[in-house]
Design goal:
With 198 residues, this protein is mainly alpha-helical. It has one domain (20-196). It has nine helices and no strands.
């Protein structure tokens, strides 16, 4: 469903640490569901398509951007600034952080994250798994309800998917100046910060 980019193995403040076990569970579940959805789509005459990475990004596709735009306010809620220029700038930075976090994962982890995104973007699997028809029409309350169902599900693979989504958003947020302020962190010393980020 996705052309995976080559990965960078570097780590850094935007790297996302997802446990191997969680990713393996999500990957297996995703493979099974995507295989079933692909077979259904083929039998019904729908052709599969490979989406390329969105313009200006290294990993996320256009459909993933819609998913992330729905997740960010649902996960971060009142920590986000009110709508306006500051909010738009923060959202743009969060999208870049999430993109780089996914891009810097190793290839096996990238593949699993891609499968999770595919599950959430493919109409045949999105509605049964989340109860959401389209990400660009979903309210934060609807997204929070789906996340809560996954968090409390008796299926460990849904719990793992929940943790992966929450980590992608929250780690990306705490890599921003707004996130630092929310955590009462004054920020790294300017000298070392400049050295490591130059």
């Amino acid at each position: 469903m996705r052309n995976l980019p080559t990965t960078e193995t570097e780590s850094g403040p935007n790297a996302v640490d997802l446990t191997r076990r969680s990713l393996l569970q999500v990957g297996l579940f995703g493979s099974l569901l995507l295989g079933a959805a692909g077979t259904t789509a083929t039998l019904s005459g729908c052709s599969s398509r490979v989406e390329s990475v969105a313009a200006g990004y290294k990993f996320l596709r256009d459909a993933d951007l819609l998913l992330m735009r729905a997740l960010i306010p649902a996960v971060l809620g009142p920590m986000l600034p009110p709508p306006g220029a500051e909010s738009e700038a923060l959202n743009a930075q969060l999208m870049r952080n999430i993109d780089l976090g996914c891009y810097r994962l190793g290839h096996p982890a990238q593949k699993v994250v891609a499968q999770l995104f595919d599950l959430l973007n493919l109409r045949l699997t999105r509605w049964p798994l989340t109860g959401i028809k389209a990400w660009d029409e979903a309210t934060p309350a609807q997204v929070q309800a789906f996340l809560e169902r996954w968090r409390t599900s008796s299926f460990s693979v849904l719990n793992a998917g929940y943790r992966a989504l929450i980590k992608l958003v929250s780690v990306s947020f705490y890599g921003t100046h707004v996130g630092w302020a929310a955590a009462n962190y004054p920020g790294p010393p300017p000298g070392p910060f400049q050295v490591f980020n130059s």
